[in-house]
């Protein structure tokens, strides 16, 4: 993340009263993607990181892909054609200061149903259910970017209130990096420079 | 059902060895010309001919346009095919060269790779509810599963319609393209193989997909350079593509796009597909256009140019010089020339028969023979016109099959070209402005520039 802060052109908008920092990342992932990052000022935890492909000739701008956080845009069924029903499990990443955390809400089955494994070859976490109702594969982009090895021991799950919580403890390298960034931010004052694309959809 | 003059053409009607079958794909006769077109087609498919040009020459009504249409059909939907008439480029809104440039760029495709999201799974349940009041929007839910998971989707109106149209039911394995909403039925699930009822012999059984329902898939789609031009010319916006009213596009925009496309090509993101530009009635172009064509054919991104003309040795528009087909010699020199010859009686009969089928007209054998005779003596086009009119007359008398009397009736109602000429010769004095009768008719009608 530190590296990202340095090598991407960070534009910062925000007012002193606004509770979060909002950035657009222009070059950090690849040349044809733009990103948007939001960080809570109080806790200095990222609560949104999203990407989308830049509009190119002959193609539409793609939708935001949420790496962290979730989309709260209103549902427009007719424009979308079909959408996952709200009764389905909802998957979102919501980090804490010490761990990467994913929450799958709307899962009514007991904790024995879930089987969460880490595959070191594909660097992906797989969630399986014994009753074959839910299945999800996801990677941990922060670990990939920092090129750190994945430790199955750091992965744990918890269940409660119809929600499955998958936690991966941040290794010390990541914690160190985040601390440096947070220190930078504590020094920063929000400027009022330029407009940034922060529309919700 | 509306039918165009060449709607019955499905291809060139050639076998694998490029030999023309006598009657195939809606094409009849013209074996030599069709074989020549087939050779050119093969060269286009191998990408060898880009920047070269072909001329189809022949008398009126000998199937020049039909051969061009057949080539378009045989090339498939992935190769851009643009068809214009020579007179189309003369417009007040844009210059001749702009119109030609646009036609050229419409005929060059750019194949772009793109990632899209698709949903692939077995239909567990599909439920579409009409509101209790009887009117208003339908509400639908679709449950899909893979071997690992199950998800319920809410359906929009369009998706409900297309699911109903595709007759999607529980047990089908389908894919849905999220971006376009296109539904593809892959087959029936193996677990349903025992439901013997209600399935045809051609039902295909497939395995239930594995893993996640939503998958990323690389798709390839083709856009033309012209479409890219229009989208990127600031003043227009992509809406101009729908209205067709694109106006002139600035040279700088085109240059930018050319360099961008070249860049993509090097990065492997895009591929150039040289298509086909067909200019019918090419003798309507003038000397400026011909010199433009000469130049345009030399650029490295040029499509295959196919031209058709029914003129012999005639004046080149915009000059005083005469030249074969009304085309300057220097351009003619670059062309491969295919010639078509008048149809035989047997072939005319077959074409008329195909047209009858295409227009859903039942015709008795006698009537067809009479019509063929008319076709031989007047022209094929006139005979084809009579099919439609005779069918109408037949329907008015509540007949089911067009017979000889119907043909006779329309033959007396509508004059063909030679009878009309004859008529005019006899009664010219009674028409207006007959004092100008001594003027040669052709030069007045042809010269517009």
TrEMBL record, chain A:
Record-given protein name: Protein DPCD
Family recorded in the similarity comment: Belongs to the DPCD family.
Tell me which InterPro entries the record gives. DPCD
Highest rank taxon of the organism: Eukaryota
**Pfam families, alphabetically?**
DPCD
From TrEMBL, chain B:
Where is this protein found? Nucleus
- Superkingdom of the source species: Eukaryota
Please give one Pfam family short name.
TIP49
Instruction: Supply one GO CC term from the record.
Output: nucleus
SMART domains in the cross-refs: AAA
Catalyzes what? ATP + H2O = ADP + phosphate + H(+)
Q: Does the keyword rRNA processing apply?
A: no
Keyword vocabulary terms for this entry? ATP-binding, DNA damage, DNA repair, Helicase, Hydrolase, Nucleotide-binding, Nucleus, Transcription, Transcription regulation
Gene Ontology BP annotations: DNA repair
Give GO MF terms, alphabetically: ATP binding; DNA helicase activity; hydrolase activity
- EC numbers for this chain: 3.6.4.12
The keyword Nucleotide-binding is assigned to this record: yes
Q: Which residue intervals define the domain AAA+ ATPase in the entry?
A: 50-342
**UniProt xrefs under InterPro entries:** AAA+_ATPase, P-loop_NTPase, RuvB-like, RuvB-like_C, RuvBL1/2_DNA/RNA_bd_dom, TIP49_P-loop
Family recorded in the similarity comment: Belongs to the RuvB family.
The protein's name in its UniProt record: RuvB-like helicase
Q: Which organism is it from?
A: Pinctada imbricata (Atlantic pearl-oyster)
